[in-house]
Design a protein that fits this description.
With 432 residues, this protein is α/β, with parallel strands linked by helices. The protein is built from ten helices and 17 strands.
Length: 432
């Protein structure tokens, strides 16, 4: 009996033990199944996420590539057109700054001088001029010929009419020495006009003036024949660019190294009061062109000299067309001879073609006249648009000019056209 009981207990124990082991095994199996399910689910999600990320990455990358291609194609296949405007020498005689003085404000205001022509200079993509005075400071006294020192507001007046670049290498650059030269630079920096041809340091002379005009890189260089016998300080020869072929050659090559699209040379040269270019100007122009200059803007003679398009042959046998105006006369001045009051606002319509070459489509000019109304008490000086003034008078508006001035302007217009000729218009664009 007892034996049977012991056997049953053992049997029950074994059964209970087996049940527990089986439960543990089942639990472990369920756990393993759950783990496998979770892992597979997580792997699937990661795969989908990675797939989506890869797809998105590929899509974004493709969009970037396509956008870049489109941008590049647009840049390469779209010609860039812009206008370059040039004006002559800005002088300021004592009669001019006396006239600009406002006794109430004790300031000098030249804005009235430019009212008739401001739209031409301000509407251009880039406007360049030449300065034939200094901004040496009021404390040194404003002065007239032979050593010029003008009010700083003359600079701000030029800025207001849209002048972007001023060439400073001229025969009056050292009228007040190196210090006057430096202060002139400071004044132009303050009003925001770029400048070239004079420098405060040797390092500055090494830096070319390069302007980006609507994506076209233009290098400007500037040189003068001399400084009226006033030498640069012996330890500061760098302060001014003299006409020196070695220096010119060096700076042209530096411009080429910087992959500019065109080079403009501002030359202070020629014979005063002569309306034709001399042999030295012509020889130097050929030198500039053959070495890489595309456009020459000349000044200094105080009168207009001819403009012309030239075709030259380079050393490699190729040819290119170039443009020069030997002198643009006085933009502002108060000199006695009528011919010194005649000038022009020069306009060049230029295109950078899809092959990177530059074309000049058209060259025209606005004939202007520096009028001095001797009967007026103030604001005697005004730059007149000659053709507009004549047209207004002929239309019956005699409030603008009188009959005497009308007849004089017709005379001056003929003189200007005889020197400059008609506008130059090339129906077929030529490559520089």
């Amino acid at each position: 009996m007892r034996r049977n009981q012991r056997n049953r207990k053992r049997k029950n124990f074994r059964e209970e033990k087996f049940k527990k082991i089986l439960e543990i095994i089942i639990f472990i199996l369920i756990l393993l199944v759950l783990i496998l399910i979770f892992k597979n689910l997580h792997k699937s999600n990661n795969y989908n996420e990675n797939k989506n990320l890869n797809n998105n990455s590929q899509t974004n990358e493709q969009e970037i590539i396509e956008n870049n291609v489109e941008t590049t194609e647009n840049e390469e296949n779209t010609p860039i057109n812009f206008t370059l405007t040039a004006i002559g020498d800005t002088l300021c005689h004592n009669t001019q700054y006396w006239d600009a003085y406002n006794s109430a404000t004790k300031e000098y205001d030249f804005s009235y001088v430019y009212e008739d022509i401001k739209d031409y200079t301000s509407s251009s993509d880039i406007t360049i001029g030449s300065l034939e005075t200094t901004f040496a400071g009021e404390d040194r006294g404003y002065s007239n010929y032979p050593t010029f020192n003008s009010p700083d507001s003359l600079a701000s007046g030029l800025k207001d009419i849209g002048v972007d670049v001023i060439s400073l290498a001229g025969n009056h650059a050292l009228d007040y020495g190196y210090s006057g030269l430096c202060r002139t630079i400071d004044v132009l920096d303050k009003v925001g006009i770029s400048h070239l041809g004079t420098y405060k340091t040797a390092e500055e002379q090494e830096q070319l003036l390069i302007k980006d005009v609507k994506g076209v890189k233009i290098a400007f260089i500037n040189y003068t024949y001399g400084t009226n016998g006033i030498p640069a300080p012996s330890d500061k020869k760098y302060c001014l660019n003299l006409i020196d072929k070695d220096l010119i050659f060096k700076q042209i090559n530096k411009a080429k190294e910087q992959n500019v699209d065109m080079i403009v040379a501002c030359m202070h040269w020629g014979t005063e009061y002569k309306t034709v270019a001399n042999d030295e100007q012509k020889e130097l122009a050929d030198f500039l062109f053959k070495n890489g200059v595309d456009v020459i803007i000349g000044n200094h003679p105080h009168v207009l000299e001819p403009m012309e398009k030239k075709t030259i042959t380079l050393d490699d046998g190729t040819s290119k067309d170039v443009f020069v105006v030997y002198a643009l006369g006085n933009f502002t001045a108060d000199q006695r001879d009528e011919i010194t009051r005649d000038s022009a606002i020069l306009n060049l319509d230029i295109t950078k073609n899809i092959d990177g070459k530059i074309s000049i489509n058209k060259v025209d000019y606005v004939p202007i006249y520096m009028y001095k109304n001797t009967s007026a008490k103030t604001h005697k000086f005004k730059i007149l648009d000659i053709e507009k003034s004549i047209a207004k008078y002929e239309a019956g508006d005699n409030s603008y000019i009188n009959s005497t001035l009308y007849n004089n302007l017709k005379t001056q217009l003929n003189k200007i056209k005889n020197i400059l000729g008609d506008e130059i218009n090339w129906l077929k664009k030529y490559s520089l």
